[in-house]
Amino acid sequence: MDVKEFNHIALEPQHSVVVEACAGSGKTWLLVSRIVRLLLDGVAPSEILAITFTRKAAREMQARLDDWLRLCATAEDDDVRQFLRERAVDESQLEGKLVQARGLFEAVLTAQPSVTISTFHAWFLDVIQRAPLSSGLMGLELAEQTRPYLNQAWGQLGQRWMRDPDEATAVAMQALIAQLGLFNTRKLLNNFIHRRSEWWAYTAGEAEPLNYSLENLQTEIGVDIDVDVAAELLADTKFIVDLQEYARLLGLNTATTQKRANAIVNILAATLTADQLYQQLHSTVLSAKGELYSLNASAAQEKRMGATAQDSMISLHVVIGTRLIDTHQQRLAQASYHFNTHVLRVGTALLAQYQTVKLEARVLDFADVEWQVAQLLLNSDDAEYTQMKLDARYQQILLDEFQDTNPIQWQILQAWFDSARTSHVMPKVFLVGDPKQSIYRFRGAEAGLFDLAREYLQTYGDAHYLQQNNTRRSSHAIITGLNATFAPITDYPLFHPHGVYETVRPGRIEVLPLVSTPEADGGNESLVRNPLMQARLEENEVHARELEAEQLSARILDIEGNWVIDDGNITRTVQFADIMILVRSRTQLHHYERALNAACIPHTSASRTGLLESMEAQDILNLLQWLSTPYLDLPLAQVLRSPIFACSDEELIQLRLAKLPTATWWETLQQHADTATLARAASLLAKWLEYANVLPVHDVLDRIYFESNLIARYQAVVPAAMAKQVTSNLTELLALALSVSGGRYPSLARFLHDIQELSGDSESAPEEGMADVGNTVSIHTIHGAKGLEAPIVWLLDAGARQAPADTYRVLLDWPLGAARPRHFSFITTQSAIAEYQQPYLAHDAQHHQREDYNLLYVAMTRARQVLMVSGVTSRRSGGWHQLISAGLAGDAEGAPIIHGDVLTQRLVTAPVNISTQVSITLPADIEQAYPMGQRKVNDDTLATQYGKLVHALLAAMLPPETCSDDSLHASFGAQHEFERAMQCVRQIVQQPQLQRFFDPQQYHSAHNEYAYLREDGSTYRIDRLVVFEDEVWVLDYKTDQQISADELISRHREQLAEYRSAMQCCYPAHKVCCGLITSAGELVVVSDGS
């Protein structure tokens, strides 16, 4: 099928279409072109729903649609006609469609609502927000940072276990820790939380999910879990008689078997428990792997024993060994059952607590959003209403990257389509994807759903099915190398040979020999290393990876400026920005970054370690840490050495020598600021300490940036190629102060705590600022490079075979099309896996291998003209390097394998114009602080500061937070009048009449610093909100001791009336009461005035 016919079918608005297309074939172009054709066909913008998987992809689709519609509105007629021809508009309709196209931009911009281009989760959230009131989902928000809620659930569960260590879940947790250790136990349970959607699906509709799961496990095991199978075996008289005879016959054979015979006899004669006896027999009769020893008939053996004895010995060897192996498998199954019981008991308790924490915070996470929408459409009383709303709005559905769909997402879509089909309003569906690019199984994606959806749409939607294996992205050399690599792989049926539209563009694949560590000089082995003078020798693979990194840097310098590539209609020499480096994981990335730095090669890692771990962000966070706790020395030393102050080593040594044993660095700096640099640091730090006590975090940072001219200082010291990236990161960090926790925490300690939680959550941590970073090499993980491309791609660390699937995880089997998984259990190490789990594990390994092939496919198809492959020798040989080398008919042992063209001897038609950044010179007066106006200090500044401290301490001490005294001292101890504030807080907390507001046993739920959004968009915050069965209390803390109760009521009645009105909307079935709590611990009730 040629391109014209393909596009004609794919873009026909009246057809449902399923497109399976290879990488670089133009799937996004096709999808957005379909939207344009729908608009040209008169489909209302509000009736179009396009769903993809990432916000970035959604933004790119929206931007492309806007650009194309703008072109249609503003370009010359001939250009618009050509645009329409490329999108399969018939020549006979061209003039009429030209007129329509001119008005599309305005129509889409003014449409209310307009075209919906969204991610799955954003669309699901929109469905939830439009759900009926009876669903109970109104007012819930999406929480993208989930780790704080999970940590809170862990903390609350731990407190419960400490209060009642004999409770069932506490006992189960103790058993797991004893078996696995705390780290692996938490890892396993966190993996269960990660797989909660599958657990909900597995137990859907079951009144007792835990019992249901355990009953299924017991059925699969097929063994009575309470029977001592070892004791039963040893109570079998025939088995013991056979064992004794087996030992006698072994004694007639070789010295080795005689030794085993003596061991059996001694074991049977010993006084042992059944378990000890079984364990010793198992280790004696069977090999270390728990298998039968090799014992075959031979002439020499027959001569020693006689034919009859030999046959009898071999027969007993098999019978006894098989009985022991079967018993071992039964014991493993029993142990697996008891282990799964412990995990499920604790896991379901943790999950319930996690859900409670989120419910109290009125938030949903991504898994909740999916599951709630599935319930809305599948099982709830509101399903018909929800489906009707969807049917009434959307008539055209476009689904991008469908290979990344998970079973629950497909169930949601299928439920909608089934309902629409029954009502004869089935929407037209355009589904596009590539199962070979399914690389997100760790997030639940199932590539097989693509074929399932295709069959469904062909059956019920009369969909056309189109396949496209020709690429516009990669050169002929890349594609022939790709075909050569994957064609011989027999267990990868997804791949079919690819073609290219452009055959003349030169290209190249270069596979470098695997790097290995040179053999150590034998003479050096006897030398003793001085640990104070010599670094420890690293392991061979690590050393080899450093050599690979050096090879990478040297080769990039050789390629840059020498190789010639195509860029549209011109040819030019390679720049650093043309090179993309790909790695499988971030684990070893620091080796390569270090080598690039040493070679002065500018580079950016979009997914390196995230914004929070960039060096400039760490400098700022160290400064905030010191401002929060000024007695800490190390953060201050790091800040002084950073570009913020740029103190020299000599100045820091001078401070260290002047420091008294009992003094802090800050005290020393104030007394010994003997240089201009140190004096500037002392002056600014003193001012910033004052700001930190009275200003929110963002305002503190804003002043720091301004008064230190911070961005200019960093631009002056970083390499020119990195200046844009560093500036972007610093700007993003400033913006983060407003976005973390909604920017609602004024205390530095709370902000730093949230940042720490955020940096530990790899799914939530912000990426580095992605400004235009200029001419730099980019580094990505393969997962992060999905959707990207580059003229030159270097695939690193390709020598090792894929690591085995992680241990301490959920073992899941969810057949395609099934309503729920058919198996759900937990596994740890290989030796602890029971026989009933082995088939599921083998099936899982097949998927694991398929995804490894998919990763390689994605990596190779990022390259437009050049693919470089390198790696190190590894114990896990047989990796991608070997696959590519074998496909290209080489071994890459000594010399590189070259496939394709020479790129050095080509004509350059356009010289490269690399914009060089002029080095920044700091102005002469940069050391002087900016002039600032005088701020009038109110008479109650100290009182206000004291009141804020009391509020912060109460918020930190009262449930659900309940910080320890040590934590409070660490967070607030440096603040003015801390001890007085602590005394006030203890007096309040210990008042008997207030216990009903502070004791979790006496109320339903409570919230500190409870924020709500007003109609005008402003935010109000309630000091403490306590929810009882039939009433809600709004509590406001007041620390002014000079005001009477009547005055307090008069002064704050209007404010509390606002709170009362807002909370009455939130809790319509409750009576809302308001009260003021004074510093003396008195409760002043404020009536509603009615």
Sum this structure up briefly.
Pfam families: UvrD-helicase, UvrD_C. This protein has about 1100 residues and is α/β, with parallel strands linked by helices.
Describe the structure.
The chain has five domains: 3-139 and 367-468, Rossmann fold (3-Layer(aba) Sandwich), CATH 3.40.50.300; 161-361, no CATH class; 510-517 and 539-606 and 775-802 and 865-900, P-loop containing nucleotide triphosphate hydrolases (Rossmann fold, 3-Layer(aba) Sandwich), CATH 3.40.50.300; 611-760, PCRA, domain 4 (Orthogonal Bundle); 943-1086, Lambda Exonuclease, Chain A, CATH 3.90.320. The longest helix has 55 residues, at 307-361. Helix 13 runs antiparallel to helix 14, helix 16 packs across helix 17 and helix 30 (697-708) runs antiparallel to helix 32 (723-739). It starts with a helix and ends with a strand. It is globular. The protein has a seven-stranded mixed β-sheet, with helices on both faces. Strand 6, helix 20 and strand 7 (428-433) form a beta-alpha-beta unit. Helix content is 50%, strand content 12%. The protein is built from 40 helices and 26 strands. The protein is α/β, with parallel strands linked by helices.
What's the SSE blueprint?
Elements: H1 3-10, E1 17-21, H2 27-40, E2 48-52, H3 55-74, H4 77-86, H5 94-110, E3 116-119, H6 120-129, E4 141-142, H7 147-163, H8 168-180, H9 182-194, H10 196-202, H11 209-221, H12 229-234, H13 237-250, H14 255-269, H15 274-285, H16 299-305, H17 307-361, E5 363-364, H18 366-378, H19 383-393, E6 396-399, H20 407-422, E7 428-433, H21 449-460, E8 464-468, E9 470-471, H22 476-486, E10 499-500, E11 508-511, H23 540-559, E12 564-567, E13 570-573, E14 579-583, H24 589-598, E15 603-605, H25 615-628, H26 634-641, H27 649-658, H28 665-671, H29 676-694, H30 697-708, H31 710-717, H32 723-739, H33 748-760, E16 777-781, E17 790-795, E18 809-813, E19 823-827, H34 838-860, E20 863-869, H35 880-887, E21 897-900, H36 941-957, H37 965-972, H38 978-989, H39 995-998, E22 1005-1013, E23 1019-1027, E24 1031-1038, H40 1045-1066, E25 1071-1078, E26 1083-1086
Helix pairs in contact: 2-3, 3-5, 4-5, 6-18, 7-17, 8-9, 8-17, 9-17, 11-17, 13-14, 13-17, 14-15, 15-17, 16-17, 18-19, 18-20, 19-20, 22-35, 23-24, 25-26, 29-30, 30-32, 31-32, 36-38
